[in-house]
Write a structure and sequence with these properties.
single chain, mainly alpha, Arc Repressor Mutant, subunit A, Four Helix Bundle (Hemerythrin (Met), subunit A), 2 domains, two-stranded antiparallel sheet, globular
């Protein structure tokens, strides 16, 4: 019985991740309604009870809310556990995106530099795979938000710095916020700069990694600056 309950719990957690990825890749925005339990069950190949448990997990993470008699709605694309600073409560998302990208410009070039010095072979292999995956998805016109987050997370992990690893949730929030605000307008620049960061880390070139990540951040910042002017 205990083994059965454990399997059910693990399945619900897996489906929760799949639903969250579906929300990001659709993409669904705050206020959008999810498909009903039957439709979600068919999409992910599980029963309605598993969907209900997965939805409960998403509710606990602040991603969705269940409105009795109406359905399940997206309330945030940033989970509580990826938002340690409580940034999702800020209403002016464009101004917040600028603040976040400014912080990223302070942090991520140095993190990329450390990654070039300290990345393991396994870390480099993972980074290459994520870089390739983001590029393929952009070229196919598919959503790449979750993979973009995974790429930046991997760079941070490759730094080999335990403090940096604790900053990963903040970096994840920044990536998610930026891509949502700009609606993925920097696809060519993302391919070019992700590849430059990856190549520099592979070549153990710390100056190149720092420069490539700074270029990536500069493209991001300039895009937000232009959007702020237009708003």
């Amino acid at each position: 019985m205990q083994l059965s309950n454990l399997k059910s719990k693990l399945l619900a957690e897996q489906v929760q991740d799949q639903i969250y990825r579906y929300i990001l890749e659709k993409p669904l925005e705050e206020g959008d309604k999810l498909p009903n339990e039957f439709q979600l069950g068919e999409r992910f190949g599980v029963g309605r009870s598993t969907i209900r448990e997965a939805v409960k997990l998403l509710v606990s993470r602040g991603i969705v809310e269940v409105r009795r008699g109406s359905g399940t709605y997206v309330v945030s694309t940033t989970p509580v556990d990826l938002d340690p600073l409580g940034l999702r409560a800020i209403e002016d998302k464009m101004a917040l995106a600028m603040d976040l990208v400014n912080v990223r410009m302070l942090l991520e070039p140095g993190i990329a530099e450390m990654a070039a010095l300290n990345a393991t072979d396994a870390g480099i292999e993972k980074l290459q795979s994520l870089c390739d995956l983001v590029e393929r998805k952009i070229e196919r016109g598919e959503s790449y938000i979750a993979d973009d987050i995974a790429f930046h997370t991997c760079v941070a992990e490759c730094s080999g710095n335990k403090v940096v690893e604790q900053l990963i949730p903040i970096i994840d929030t920044a990536v998610l916020m930026f891509v949502n605000v700009t609606h993925q307008k920097l696809k060519k620049e993302t391919i070019m700069t992700h590849r430059a960061v990856t190549d520099a880390i592979i070549e153990r070139d710390p100056v190149g990694a720092r420069s490539a990540m700074m270029m990536h951040m500069t493209f991001n910042r300039n895009m937000i600056k232009e959007m702020l002017k237009e708003s």
